[in-house]
Each structure stands twice: as C-alpha cells, then as structure tokens.
Design brief:
102 residues, mainly alpha, 3 helices, 0% strand, rod-shaped
Length: 102
Amino acid sequence: MKSVSQIFQGNEHLMDLYPVEELIDYVQELEGRIFESDMEDDKEHIFKSMLQDIMNSCQEFEENKILEERYPELYKKVDAETLVKNLLNYILEMNRTSKLGL
C-alpha cells in the first residue's frame, strides 16, 4: 500500500488543499480502524488457540485419570493441583507475551 507522500510525490502542493486534507485525514482514520481490526483478529486467534490447548489438557487429564484407575500399577496418580498451577502459569504467560489485557 502506498503512503500519502508517495501518492502525492511531485504534487505535494495538492496536499495543502482543504478537500485533499480532509480526504487524507479520512484515509488515515480508516487505516487506523483496519489496524485495530487486524489486532482484534489476532487476539481472537490467540484466544482460540489457548482454549484448544486447555481443552486438550483437560481431555488428557481425564484419559490419564481413567487409565490410572484401571491400571494403578502402571500409571501414577495425576496431580490435579500441579495441573491447575501449570494452567494458570500458561494463561499468565500467554497474557504477558501476547498483550491480551486479561
């Protein structure tokens, strides 16, 4: 995408005309909205990814719990407290690195 200065290169004097100034302001406002929209889409993707990771961890926990009950000599007991601490650390780290604002 070309910048405003690239579009008016060689005709900079046109940028001082009031209708052109209004048009430039409007275009810059739209560009800002598009950028904000892209950021929201990125956050939505991050949240979906996090939710999928959490769901997979919960399913794995349930499967391990069933296996531990069925075969106690082969599988050690799943520690739910550690699981919750790890989950909280994961959410806090994703919030920090992705600037999610939670």
